[in-house]
Amino acid sequence: MYFKDIIGQAEIKRQLIQTAHTGNIAHAQLFCEPEGAGGFALALAYARYLNCDNRTAEDSCGNCPSCLKYDGLVHPDLHFVFPMVASKEKKKDVCDDYLPEWRNFLQEHTYFNLNTWLSSIEADNKQAIIYAKESDEILRKLSLKAQEATYRVLFVWLPEKMNDACANKLLKLIEEPPHNTLFFLVSEAPEQIISTIQSRAQRINIRGIAPEDMMQNLTTRLGLTYDDAQNVAHIANGNYIKAAETISLSEENMLFLEMFKSMMRNSWSRNVKGMKSSADQFATIGRERQKNFFNYTQRLIRENFMYRFQSPELNYMNIEEAQFSSKFAPFVNERNVFELMEELEKAERHVSQNVNSKMVFFDLSLRITVLLKR
Q: Which residues, at least 6 apart from 363, have a Cβ–Cβ distance to it below 8 Å?
């Protein structure tokens, strides 16, 4: 990935490039981004730029030995740590066991999230974490002398998913880093990272993609008309992943929308048999997708509440969602919206704590029945 591949974020790019020229480079940097803003791509482009032999004022050269190895993500001084699902059957215990899949994934995706990654390795029905065993691998890698690069770089994608033991061992490395070793942590939920790591890393806050930058990309690269690009950019609200899903409604979002419709219709009509059937379906989609579904439903409740005010600039729904909301929105009002959100947040928390998902969904449907009648 190069700086040129990243949509917008001109100010952050300038800041990173300036540090490369001044040599004022923090050995631990925490890239904090909302989903779909390009945080990982920025950090990877920055690592490439720092090690490029013939960098220009704006980007890496793309031709030097370092750049060519970064193209294939095979540079010996470039290391990755990321959430994964351990599998005894597949003999995959640490991140390096997934390295071929990870490299292919990064070659195909500039903007991605945990769901995209888990789907690519067919593990979307399981919870992914960074295991304690990974800390031993990190220690082993960084105990060796850097081979070629000016800076050896360890990427930790989604450090909020680290096991506590792994996080504490990483903290010790950050406190006493090996010579010319950089730690780039890319997070979507920095508040969930242990405070001692947060306090020892230079924080780089990345904002969502600006609407004008999003629109330019959608019109020039994807060929959307100005009006369509404007609408998609508004719905995406700075999230390129959301923009891509809006253009071609993703399979997962279609599933979530249908599940949301079914849940609300069953609750409104007090269809207990339908609630049980939906709970059975919900139990089959896996913990990560269950949590994502509750995130999705919370967003739709908010959107339906705002829909009642007839202010399009306040809504961020695609066409299919808006069609359902035209009839459903009146049932989300001042008397129930806060409690609906609380119940959904509680259900998401219970799923995260491994409570029986079928019971969580069925209980939630019953509670929504009461709230929708207000």
A: 347
